[in-house]
Specification:
The chain is built from three helices and five strands. The protein has a five-stranded antiparallel beta sheet, with helices on one face.
């Protein structure tokens, strides 16, 4: 996962790239199907996909909205979090604002 800049929307995005040598066509097709499915989802608990495709080098990618904050590993190092507490925190969190973007964005890494 990389932090990248979307040149079209001028937004920071999270960029997931398959950079493993020898990925077969079936795995690449599965990655593109995953991008299409995720791009169609709209839920406050699921990160929003803004673009997917192939980089100039031919590597497949999915670009998602960038979310600021700590990841789960950082949170767990800071203090343990029980499952009921984690679920309670999720229900209390406000819905994220979702800026409009165009699919097929040009991504700069």
């Amino acid at each position: 996962m990389y932090r990248a800049h979307d040149r079209i929307t001028d937004q920071t995005v999270a960029l997931k790239v398959i950079a493993i040598p020898g990925v077969d066509a079936g795995e690449e097709a599965r990655f593109h199907r995953e991008g299409r499915v995720l791009a169609g989802l709209n839920h406050p608990g699921i990160v929003r996909v803004v673009a997917f495709g192939q980089l100039d080098e031919g590597l497949p990618y999915v670009a998602m909205e960038w979310l600021e904050g700590e990841d789960i590993a950082q949170r767990m190092r800071r203090a343990s979090l029980s499952l009921p507490r984690a679920c309670s925190s999720q229900r209390k969190s406000p819905t994220r604002s979702r800026p409009r973007t165009r699919r097929g964005s040009s991504i700069a890494t």
